[in-house]
Design a protein that fits this description.
The chain is an alpha/beta fold. It is about 35% helix and about 20% strand. Among the domains are: about 140 residues, Rossmann fold (3-Layer(aba) Sandwich); about 55 residues, Beta Barrel (OB fold (Dihydrolipoamide Acetyltransferase, E2P)). The chain has 14 helices and 19 strands.
C-alpha cells in the first residue's frame, strides 16, 4: 500500500511546535486536547506526524524568522510527502494572515489567536477535501477573524499521571498600547473569563493532583477590570486570588505577566495574606530611563517602579523579582542605557530577560527616528547580561546550605534518579533520589549552584 493510502486508512497523527510565551504553550495544549478528543493521535516527534502545526510568536522578529524557517523545512518535506498537512497558528498568523499563504505555496492552514478552538474543524475539512490526486494544490484555510467569547475556549488540560503544575488562562488581549508592542494587534482587546469558571477549572486540576497553577494573561493583574466591579476594596484579580486560596489540594499560585500599573494596595495586601501565593513576581521594567519609558508609553516612572519594588519586598519578605528589559529602543542614547544599567545594579533582580529592540509592523516605535544600530544593541545586551549574571551568582551563593521547599515536577529524561523542581521563589533545583518524587513538596538542602540552577539533597 502506498504511504499516502496508508495515511488515509487511519486517523492521522499531529505534532505541535510552539514558539513564544506561556500563553502560546497553554493555547497549544488546548488544541492538542481537542484533536485527541476528535480521534487524532499525538505523534512522538515531528518526523512521525501527518499534521504539523506551528504555534507562532510575533513579539520579536527572531521568533517570526524561526517559525518561517521551520515551515520552509516542512514544505520541503511536503514535496516528498504530499499528504502532509502543515499550518500556522497564533500571533504571527494573526498578524500576517493571508500574506503567509501567498508567501508559502502549499501551506494548508492559517488560524489566528481567537480561533484555536476551530483548528480541529479545519483539519477535518482539509482531510475531507482530499481527492485521489494527493499532489493537487488546494486553497488554504485562513481564519484570523475576531470571535466574541474566544477567551472562554482555553479551558481543557491534557493532564498526565502525577502532573504537578498547570497553566490556567484567565484572560486574553491587551489595551495598554505600549509603543513597541504588537500584542494588542495580535491578541485583541482585553477580555476576561468569568471568575467562577476559572475557580472551577483550578478545583478540577487540584482534584486531579495538580499542586501549583500559574495564571496567564497578557496583563494578568488587570484581569476583569472591564467586566466586574471592585468589591470591598479588592479588584477582580485579587478577588480571584482569594477564591483560589480556598481550594483544597492546591498548594501554590503564581501569575504572569503583570504590568507595574496593576499593583495596587489590594494586591500588595494579598502577598501579605495568602499562604499559597508564591514569593515570586515577574515585573517588566523595559528601561531605566524616564525619557525612554515615555517614548515606550509605559505609564510609570523610574521612581514609581523603584518604590513599587520596595513595597513588594516589604509586603513579601524573600520575594524574588524577575524582569524584562529592552535595549536599543529608538532614541536610546548611551546615557539612557547607563541609567538602565545603574537601576538593574541597584534593584538586584533575580533574573532579567534582556531583548534587543525589534521593530514590529504597525507599532508606533517602528516609525520613530533614532533607530539604534544593531552593533550597539548587541554591545548593550551583552554588557547588561553580564551585570545580571553577576548579581545572580551572588544571590545563588547566598542560598548554599539553606533548606528550601521544592515542588518536584518530574524525572530527567537522561538519568532516572535525577529529578527537578522549583522553590516558591521559582528557583530550579535538581535532586538525585531513587524514589519518584513527582508531584510532592519536599525539603531540600542546597549544596551547589550553576548560577540559575541549583543542586540539593532531599531532607527526610
Amino acid at each position: 500500500m502506498p504511504p499516502d493510502a496508508l495515511w488515509l486508512a487511519r486517523m492521522p497523527a499531529f505534532f505541535i511546535k510552539t514558539y513564544g510565551c506561556q500563553m502560546n504553550e497553554r493555547d497549544s495544549e488546548q488544541v492538542a486536547v481537542e484533536l485527541r478528543a476528535r480521534g487524532y493521535a499525538a505523534a512522538a516527534s515531528e518526523a512521525d506526524a501527518d499534521i504539523v502545526l506551528i504555534n507562532t510568536c510575533a513579539v520579536r522578529d527572531m521568533a517570526e524568522q524561526k517559525a518561517l524557517a521551520k515551515m520552509q523545512n516542512l514544505l520541503g518535506r511536503k514535496r516528498r510527502q504530499p499528504a502532509l498537512i502543515v499550518g500556522f497558528m497564533g500571533c504571527m498568523a494573526q498578524s500576517r494572515g493571508g500574506e503567509l499563504a501567498a508567501l508559502l505555496p502549499r501551506l494548508d492552514l492559517v488560524t489566528g489567536t481567537q480561533k484555536y478552538h476551530k483548528v480541529a474543524d479545519y483539519l477535518d475539512q482539509l482531510i475531507a477535501r482530499r481527492g485521489p490526486d494527493m499532489d493537487s494544490l488546494r486553497a488554504p484555510i485562513v481564519d484570523i477573524a475576531e470571535e466574541a467569547g474566544s477567551q472562554n475556549t482555553i479551558k481543557d488540560h491534557p493532564l498526565t499521571v502525577r502532573q504537578a503544575t498547570a497553566f490556567v488562562s484567565i484572560m486574553q488581549g491587551c489595551d495598554m498600547r505600549c509603543s513597541f508592542c504588537i500584542v494588542p494587534a495580535t491578541r485583541g482587546a482585553e477580555r476576561s473569563r468569568p471568575l467562577a469558571d476559572i475557580v472551577s477549572e483550578a478545583r478540577a486540576l487540584a482534584a486531579a493532583g495538580v499542586k501549583e497553577i500559574t495564571l496567564l494573561g497578557q496583563i494578568v493583574n488587570q484581569y476583569g477590570r472591564r467586566e466586574w466591579p471592585i468589591v470591598s476594596g479588592r479588584s477582580p484579580f485579587t478577588q480571584l486570588l482569594y477564591a483560589l486560596e480556598k481550594i483544597d489540594g492546591l498548594e501554590r499560585i503564581r501569575f504572569t505577566s503583570p504590568h507595574p500599573v496593576g499593583y495596587r494596595r489590594d494586591l500588595l495586601q494579598a502577598f501579605r495574606d495568602l499562604r499559597k501565593l508564591c514569593e515570586h513576581v515577574h515585573l517588566p521594567l523595559q528601561s531605566g530611563s524616564d525619557r525612554i519609558l515615555r517614548a515606550m508609553r509605559r505609564a510609570y516612572t523610574v521612581d514609581r517602579y523603584r518604590r513599587l519594588v520596595a513595597e513588594l519586598r516589604a509586603a513579601c519578605p524573600g520575594l524574588a523579582i524577575t524582569t524584562d528589559i529592552i535595549v536599543g529602543f529608538p532614541g536610546e542614547t548611551d546615557a539612557d542605557y547607563q541609567a538602565t544599567r545603574r537601576l538593574v545594579a541597584e534593584l538586584r533582580f533575580d533574573n532579567a530577560y534582556i531583548f534587543r529592540y525589534s521593530p514590529r509592523r504597525g507599532t508606533p516605535a517602528a516609525a520613530l527616528p533614532g533607530q539604534v544600530a544593531e552593533t550597539d544593541k548587541d554591545l548593550r545586551n551583552k554588557d547588561l547580561l553580564a551585570v545580571v549574571d553577576g548579581i545572580a551568582r551572588q544571590n545563588a551563593a547566598a542560598l548554599l546550605g539553606q533548606t528550601v521547599e521544592i515542588l518536584v515536577e518530574g524525572r530527567s529524561r537522561t538519568k532516572a534518579t535525577r529529578q527537578s523542581g522549583r522553590t516558591r521563589a521559582n528557583k530550579i533545583v535538581i535532586v538525585s533520589d531513587a524514589a519518584d518524587l513527582t508531584g510532592q513538596l519536599v525539603p531540600v538542602t542546597i549544596s551547589d549552584t550553576s548560577t540559575y540552577t541549583f543542586y540539593g539533597e532531599v531532607r527526610r
